[in-house]
Request: fold
Amino acid sequence: MGATGPEQEVILSGSNLVKHFGELRAVDGVDLEIYKGEVLSIVGPNGAGKTTLLKLLSGGHQIDRGEILFMGKNIGPMSLIQRARLGIVYSFQIPALFEHLSALDNVRLALLNREGKTFIFFANVARFPKVRKEAQEILGVFNVPEDSPASALPHGQRKLLDAAIAFALNPKLLLLDEPTSGVSTEEKGQVMDTIMPIIRQSDTTAVIVEHDMEIVTRYTQRVIVMQQGRVLVGGTPEKIMADAQVQEVLLGHAPSG
Amino acid sequence: MQRMNRISLIAALCLLGVGPTFFPGFTMYLLTYALIMSIAALSVNLLLGYTGLMSFGHGMFIGAGAYTVALMTRYTGIHSFEVLIPMSIVTSAALAAFVGLFCTRQIDIYFAMLTLAFGELLYALFAKFYNLTGGTDGVRVEMPALFGYVLKAGVQYYYFVLGLFLVCAWAMWVICNSPFGKAIQAVRDNEIRAGYLGLVVMKYRLFAFVISGAFTGLAGVLLVSLTGHAVPELFQVITSIGIVFMVILGGHTSFLGPVIGAVVFVFLQSWLQPLFFWQFFLGAAIIILVMFLPGGVLGGIQLWARQALNRRSSSAAQIS
Reply:
């Protein structure tokens, strides 16, 4: 793949990122580079700081120390909304949906806001055929029925709808927080098989937090392993899987045999 | 179900249209009053049902509308609806923008308490500044003219109110289904996600508050023209709670629930007040609603109709 080659263009780089929650150092001096067009996964045990790191990149949390450059811009001081406008979009681990709105409206809102149309008072939402069509297309590729309220969807489709909303914002960098958590083993493949081609075709850079090493190996080119707020090691999935130290962190014991 | 909704809506409109031919004067007075309160209840529900904010201070906008009429008449001699209505919409929207700047930073109980506090504050101001406002005696208000024509209390005023009610209900329906309307519902459902979409949550709350306040101000104009008396109590929490109760009674989960609530509230109040402790029924009704009918009267009717339809279609399926 050569995804980690030095000739690759860096889309985001973070240096010495730190985030405290009281006494807890959730992220404790992380350096990372994300290359344009790659799919990077972050693995690590619970409490390693994976979600916090994603939120630091998206602006959901502000960094206490360090620097984040996104396409050459210093985005550290920027708010969530400013970063969303630049194209950094976060998709939630526990689907964060507009429960009483239809799936169509969930996606449509993202599009309307992207187009700056949410302060229109005197026209029915249905009166924006282009927005409607785009929303329907997005739901189509994500395989989510458009009419049912978000609250009525089964869990796998809720995860997909969450990703669809994020995707509707036209991300340059998509941050997916455990896209398959809480989904049954059989469904995991379905969810990933739906999301990954869309990411590849749209040439989006993606960072995925994932527990399941099988998914990591199958769908991503590069992995970083986190432990206690720090990056332990990074590399190709094969290299990571072969690393005895990683095995110990992820599985709690060294590989047998 | 949709067809049934449409049929009942048309039937209700016809009934409102021909009402004065069948009903005695006092019933028409109550119906006029109920339609005015319906405008206020719809506005409160724009906040409660659609934006997720419970206001205990909408009396302040009723008061703002009423005193716009009273004070304009007293100090400028202007006494016609075509000036007073836009004026009151502007004053109550301005008041809502000012109060909203403080209140919409908060949600839940903090929002409710702040709106309540602003209402009481205005009550105190209008009650104390006797020279300016007539104090606790209030100000007597004659029926304003409409383009030089003085509306007669009763049937003529009823149709005027009915017309304005329909315009307001239609406008609020359009707003609730507009991109802005969807955005406030998104803010209600998931404030954090709305922020992640790039929506500035507070701005939507503030705009919803201003729109809601403006419509309630209009209701204030119509109310004071009906009762003929602007009193500082209009600003108070008792007015605000009454409107919230109409919304809950009718059902805050459907657009027209608050209208049903206002009509039921006004007529029940008028029948029960002379008989017994009205507050007893009010309290009992709130308990029953919260425990057994969280969707309010309209929500209950809809649930019942849906079950009846299902039963009919399932028995039809058995026969065939």
In short: The mean pLDDT of chain B is 90. The first strand of chain B starts at residue 139 and ends at 140. The first helix of chain B runs from residue 2 to 22.
